[in-house]
Design goal:
32% helix, alpha/beta
């Protein structure tokens, strides 16, 4: 799962599609439920839930761990570890009888050439810093300029009004992290006339690792520092003029990667049930929870669906398409690329999209995406049909006696590009770097005051980082949803209730 909030398309992808999934003709809405269709859907759902489990899917997590171990400890996009991961998924799906394809595309990776920050006056000292990914370079030897602190409020540096009352022209803006995307803070600083940006963290002891996401979005030199260093600089600026030397330079390196797309041979091409998870990890670790867990769960249910359809000669009523995205950790690149390639006709053929990203966090909460915005938190409701997807998932969890709560469509995972195109979406998530509350610990167990996944985006995201109970529960969610929607989409048009 991505490290920062974003719900915008990622531009500047260089595409080289070598094989794409079969695309279809006329679009059609979900129709009234045919006689017996609901019973057929319920039967398939029961079989898939019975046959799909965390125990059976654990072998896929073990395989992904072995792949990471053999490839430098990670499965990041553009690396041999990710290539091996896609080959593993492709091979099993092809053997199971799916129409499987790779969807290749290129992305840019930022290589840091220089990253230094020093106070020049009044008290010279060096400060640990990280250059923004794809940052615009300073002149050789660095940019020396006065520091100007941007107002700290609920949305620091997210709008030009935060710069009102000061002259930032030729100065380096000091901005606190929070609320909006890191790229937006760089863009606003440039619009305010700043010559550079220093972004300081809102928590922890590490400097911010910022990004402008793609080379074409870089406006000014930018770097991140820690909360303590940022607050110290802000206090010094409040006392009088403070000059700093910022010296950063990056290089954009183009790299290839690919999505894996698999779909059932049978089922109506006019109604496509789409499910996805991202297969790439961050470079820091093997990514077994983030997102080996979602990838493994999706793969296991796909294999069990193939057994039911191929072994019993009962093709799904609706075509079912599974996707394993690349580049999610770099900004939803794979899902953005996939959706961008769809024509309007092809887009309308997708009845819904279900996303599963981090479904086995070690200190979990069972989060269900808030399709109807009944929690009134963050973004608004999802496209029409999203509330009904939430209701279907909640109904399954209620029948299992499993507690759950809503989570916002905040744009941090691969549902984002689908929602932007008006496709109803949903799914589950067990938490990332957020902190479990006392109330959540009372309902879900685990430890209050600790992150849902203390190893989020770290080297510790290994097989030991998996909660097997949460993993099993969410695979049941996937299996139930696939079973129902493979035969019956009529619930998308029914009242959702609460």
């Amino acid at each position: 799962m991505r490290a920062h909030l974003r719900r915008r398309a990622i531009s500047a992808l260089v595409t080289t599609v070598v094989a794409t999934p079969v695309l279809f003709a006329a679009a059609a809405p979900a129709e009234a439920r045919p006689a017996g269709q609901h019973e057929k859907a319920e039967r398939l759902a029961r079989k898939l839930v019975k046959n799909s489990s965390g125990k059976s899917a654990y072998r896929h997590l073990q395989a992904l761990q072995k792949i990471a171990d053999a490839n430098g400890g990670n499965r990041a996009a553009g690396t041999p570890g990710h290539v091996a991961s896609t080959e593993y998924v492709y091979r099993l799906l092809k053997k199971a009888g799916y129409d499987v394809s790779y969807q290749d595309f290129d992305f840019y990776e930022s290589k840091t050439l220089r990253e230094k920050l020093a106070v020049v006056t009044p008290e010279p000292r060096d400060i640990r810093t990280f250059a923004y990914k794809f940052s615009k370079a300073t002149p050789e030897g660095g940019l020396v300029a006065p520091l100007a602190a941007v107002r700290v409020d609920a949305t620091p540096g997210c709008g030009l009004d935060d710069y009102a009352g000061q002259d930032f022209k030729g100065k380096i803006a000091l901005v606190k992290r929070g609320s909006c995307a890191l790229q937006q803070k760089e863009e606003i600083a440039a619009k305010a006339g700043a010559a550079g940006l220093i972004l300081y963290n809102h928590s922890g002891t590490e400097p911010v690792r910022g990004t402008v996401e793609t080379p074409d979005k870089a406006h000014i030199p930018a770097a991140g520092v820690s909360l303590a260093d940022g607050e110290a600089l802000a206090a010094q600026v409040a006392k009088g003029e403070t000059k700093v030397r910022l010296d950063v330079a990056t290089e954009a390196v183009k790299r290839p990667t690919r999505n894996v797309i698999a779909e059932t041979k049978g089922g109506s091409a006019d109604h496509v049930v789409t499910l996805g998870s991202h297969l790439d990890s961050v470079p820091a670790g093997p990514g077994i929870n983030d997102n080996g867990s979602g990838s493994a769960g999706l793969l296991e249910v796909a294999l069990k669906l193939a057994q039911q359809t191929r072994g019993h000669g009962q093709q799904p009523t609706n075509k079912v398409r599974f996707a394993w995205w690349s580049g999610e950790e770099l900004g939803l690149l794979g899902s953005e690329h996939y959706v961008a390639q769809l024509s309007e006709k092809q887009r309308k053929q997708i009845a819904l999209y279900l996303n599963f990203d981090m479904i086995a966090s070690p200190n979990p909460v069972e989060f269900v995406y808030d399709g109807d915005d009944s929690d009134h938190t963050g973004s608004g409701p999802g496209p029409k049909g999203s509330a009904q997807i939430e209701k279907l998932i909640n109904g399954y969890l209620d029948r299992k006696g499993a507690p759950h709560e809503g989570t916002d469509f905040d744009g941090r995972s691969d549902y984002g590009p689908f929602i932007e195109k008006g496709i109803p979406a949903g799914g589950t998530f067990t938490g990332a770097e957020g902190i479990k509350t006392k109330d959540q610990a009372a309902r879900f167990g685990g430890t209050a005051g600790t992150a849902y996944d203390p190893n989020y985006h770290g080297a510790g995201d290994t097989l030991a980082n998996i909660d097997r109970k949460a993993f099993d529960l969410n695979i049941g969610v996937i299996a139930h949803a696939v079973g129902i929607y493979a035969h019956d989409l009529s619930s998308l048009d029914e009242p959702a209730g609460h």
